[in-house]
Amino acid sequence: MAAVGCSFDHDDSSPPSRKGHAVSASPTKVTSGSSSDPYAPSVEKVPKVASDGITALATDTAVKGNAVYSIPGGITAGKTLAIAINCQGPGRLTVQVKPTGISFPLLCEKGKVLPTMNEIHMSKNYSTSSLAFTAGQNVTWSFAVGWDPHPPEQQ
Fold first, then answer.
1. Predicted TM-score (pTM) of this structure
2. What digits encode the pLDDT tens for the residues 55-75?
3. Is residue 34 part of a domain?
4. What is the rounded CA–CA span in Å between residue 57 and residue 143?
């Protein structure tokens, strides 16, 4: 399996504790405590993926702790899965694409929202799949996942 911008790390030590929801579009939730720059990354709103031509399949905002989100329709070989994440707070957030065994860790920082976009080219079909997030207790995060219609070229 080829991955762009990812490392491979696998850990099933703690079960996820939150179930997600699927959406048909990428909604934006804005709160009164958001940054003065409306375009700045925030854990209080869904990372912007629509500008990249990606239709979000699942999203969530202001999540603390572990969570699992279904990828509607499963995984199709030959497609590129795009995962956008904003995280904040001292600690680590690990994302696992199940059942592929692909995972990647993110180091998050206190007082700073760190945006990340990972694109993973899928080489096998899976009728059901999900994203499992494992977060440190001080980490807050938001995400959007979808299929990239214009993935980067593989090298």
1. 0.74
2. 899 999 999 999 999 999 999
3. no
4. 11
